[in-house]
Specification:
The complex is a heterodimer.
Chain A (H helix, E strand, L loop, with lengths): L3 E10 L3 E11 L4 E5 L6 H9 L6 E6 L2 E2 L5 H4 L2 E3 L11 H6 L11 H14 L15 H13 L6 E4 L7 H18 L3 E5 L2 H7 L2 E6 L2 E6 L1 H6 L4 H4 L8 E4 L10 E4 L4 E17 L3 E8 L2 E8 L9 E6 L5 E3 L10
Parallel strand pairs in A: 3-8, 3-9, 6-7, 7-8
Antiparallel strand pairs in A: 1-2, 1-4, 4-5, 9-10, 11-12, 12-17, 13-14, 13-16, 14-15
Chain B lengths: L11 H29 L3 H4 L13 H7 E5 L2 H6 L6 H8 L2 E6 L2 H32 L5 H10 L9 H11 L5 H26 L3 H8 L4 H12 L1 H17 L2 H6 L7 H4 L4 E2 L2 E2 L1 H30 L7
Helix pairs in contact in B: 1-15, 3-15, 6-9, 6-12, 7-9, 9-12, 10-11, 12-15
The chains are: A alpha+beta, B mainly alpha.
Chain lengths: 335, 314
């Protein structure tokens, strides 16, 4: 495993469309780094530039301080889990897993390949499928084999491009836990791309938030959640979504906008009065939508909460947790 | 009424109609071929008898005549010879002839094999590489190049026969296997590039990218991952190329005489005594049919998927 650094990376497609602009980031050895952002933000492009599948316009890619910007993909020794089309359909599961090990760059003895493949198959619980054709597997099994094909060797870095997005919710959760355990056991360096905030917060040691080809904030999941530097970043994490409201609503007249997390609103009593629009019981919590001076505010309450629509409701806000933003949607930090 | 079928499935009546139409069509197309095969098993007399004989006593005379050169001898001379050593010598002597040696047919037949398979392999191989490049790389003037490649098909190849004839004489390629392989490859290549490009476009590029990341060069990835998946297209293309170069007549007449002459120009020259030797010609064409038939049957499994390419995605 290696430390991976990107320095001043620029990339445009067809000489016009800017895909990446001045990307600087460092992924430490053994770190689980998640790139978060909506589609089109440049997450996949970043991975492809590291893998060498895209030529970059300028900037450097460094593995353990060694500049590999102009190396071929094969010689970079990275592994990649694609979102789709991940298995070679004309091979069996075993051959798929053995494929990277049989590369002319490695030339491992067949015995060793067999051991490694069987070990990884056991880890991902696909041992009984090894003889099957790749096309005979279910979606979940295919994706596990795809992850297995990446994990079967120890590259400089594992690059994962939304590997779980094509799976159903339950399997996604199981594999998410497995993936984190595997990463901890192997002490692997992983760069993981997702737009799923649950994946980002549970897996990441560090999160990098991308917006239109630029990195806007890097931090631990807690930092990104508690201390976002802009409205854009604050909206990346948290479910239900953060409330973005005009500051004047809460008598903060010199502040354009404020961000208020739903769990920082207390219902029952308080100086503010609104009307209930809807309630949504999610089991462990209830999301209450409130109409407050023609603004919709979402509040989340532990346990269940009984109220009927259009009922008047009083609430208070935790002023310490209010995030303040200026006209440019950037965070205003208190001294 | 069978009510269990889905609405999308054709009814059993239309299935039967379709089968009937196909059978009628098959019979019509098979009549000339079966007549040819029948002729090959007739003797010279029954082959040209009128009215034509549908039931006849089978004979291998046509095949014997195809493979041998014979000369007519007087009865006295034939009587002076030792008794015939095998069945075909006996057959020839019953016609008052002796075998003077093997005919040129086997040589022409193997020329056809070498040139047919050689040019098919070359067309498919070069076509696959070119198609891959057109499908994956940013080639300058790509569309114009593709159109240019196709435009070589817009006139009958024989239109350029004279320049090619002169070129081949200058280059010493006339009447050589290599010359014919190059010529047929050039004619087939445009078809191969266009057909295969369609198939290559269907293969997601993620496969090669995955292989390249897994430690293979682009060329290795092409052979290990792309080619196996393009098998359908390769089989279809190979059959089309094979059929063309196997059956080609005009260039073969013009450019080959002895060394590299293929079977098509040779078979019609089989002349019997006092007219064409129809059973021998029938035997020649029957044998000529077999390789393409076998080749097509071997690749049939791939071909069936190949014909519908683009229509279905896995």
């Amino acid at each position: 495993m290696a430390k991976v650094e990107l320095k001043k990376l620029f990339k445009t497609y067809n000489k016009k469309i800017k895909a990446l602009e001045d990307i600087n980031l460092t992924i430490e050895d053994g770190q689980f780094f998640v790139l978060l952002g909506p589609s089109g933000a440049g997450k996949t492009t970043t991975l492809r530039c590291i893998a060498g599948l895209e030529k970059i316009d300028s900037g450097d890619v460094l593995f353990d301080d060694e500049n590999i910007t102009h190396d071929q993909p094969a010689s970079r020794d990275v592994s990649f889990v694609f979102q789709q089309y991940s298995l070679y359909p004309h091979y069996t599961v075993y051959e798929n897993l053995a494929f990277p090990l049989r590369s002319p760059m490695r030339k491992l003895p067949e015995e060793e390949i067999k051991n490694k493949v069987e070990k990884i198959a056991e880890m991902l619980k696909i041992t009984n499928k090894l003889k099957n054709k790749a096309t005979e597997l279910s979606g979940g099994e295919m994706q596990r084999v795809a992850i297995g094909r990446a994990l079967v060797r120890e590259p400089n870095i594992y690059l994962m491009d939304e590997p779980l997005s094509s799976l159903d919710a339950k399997l996604r959760e199981t594999l998410r836990v497995e993936l984190k355990n595997i990463q901890l056991n192997l002490n692997a360096t992983i760069l993981y791309v997702t737009h799923d905030q649950a994946e980002a917060t549970t897996l990441a040691d560090k999160i990098g938030v991308l917006k239109e080809g630029k990195i806007v904030q890097i931090g631990t999941p807690e930092e990104i959640y508690e201390n976002p530097n802009s409205i854009y970043v604050s909206q990346r994490l948290g479910s239900p979504k953060i409330n973005i409201l005009p500051g004047s609503l809460f008598k903060l007249n010199n502040i354009t906008k404020i961000g208020l997390r739903p769990e920082n609103i207390e219902l029952g009593n308080g100086p503010y009065e609104g009307k209930v629009i809807s309630t949504e019981n999610l089991g462990s919590e209830t999301v209450v939508a409130i109409n407050f001076q023609d603004n919709e505010i979402l509040a989340s309450i532990q346990g269940s909460y009984n109220s009927s629509i259009n009922e008047k409701i009083n609430f208070d806000i935790n002023t310490n947790k209010v995030l303040k933003f200026d006209k440019g949607d950037q965070r205003i930090y208190e001294r | 009424m069978d009510t269990s079928r889905s609405y999308l499935e054709p009814s059993s009546f239309s299935k039967k109609m379709a089968a009937a139409i196909i059978i009628v069509y098959a019979v019509i197309t098979l009549i000339p071929i079966s007549w040819m095969v029948m002729t090959s098993f007739k003797n010279v007399d029954s082959a040209i008898s009128y009215p034509p004989e549908v039931l006849f006593e089978p004979s291998l005379e046509g095949y014997v005549n195809l493979f041998t050169n014979r000369s007519r001898q007087s009865q006295e001379y034939l009587d002076s010879l030792p008794p015939p050593e095998n069945w075909y010598e006996e057959l020839v002597r019953s016609r008052e002839m002796v075998i003077t040696g093997p005919s040129k047919f086997l040589g022409r037949y193997s020329n056809s094999m070498i040139i047919g398979f050689g040019s098919t392999f070359a067309s498919v191989f070069l076509g696959a590489l070119a198609a891959y490049a057109f499908s994956r790389f940013r080639v300058p003037l790509k569309d114009d190049l593709l159109f240019f490649i196709l435009s070589t098909r817009m006139f009958p190849p024989i239109a350029v026969a004279v320049p090619i004839f002169i070129m081949y004489r200058k280059l010493g390629l006339g009447d050589t296997h290599l010359g014919m392989i190059i010529l047929y490859t050039v004619v087939n290549l445009s078809l191969a590039v266009w057909l295969l490009k369609g198939f290559m476009d269907e293969i997601p590029k993620e496969y090669e990218e995955a292989a390249m990341i897994d430690g293979y060069s682009r060329l290795q990835a092409f052979f290990k991952v792309v080619l196996p998946q393009a098998m359908t297209g390769i089989a279809a293309t190979a059959i089309f190329c094979m059929i063309f170069s196997w059956n080609e007549y005009a260039f073969a007449v013009l450019l080959t005489q002895f060394n590299a002459q293929t079977a098509p120009p040779f078979i019609p020259t089989i002349i019997g005594e006092g007219g064409l030797d129809w059973p021998a010609i029938g035997a020649g064409t029957t044998l000529f049919l077999l390789p393409v038939m076998i080749f097509t049957i071997i690749l049939r499994k791939h071909l069936l998927r190949g014909i519908t390419f683009g229509a279905v995605r896995k």
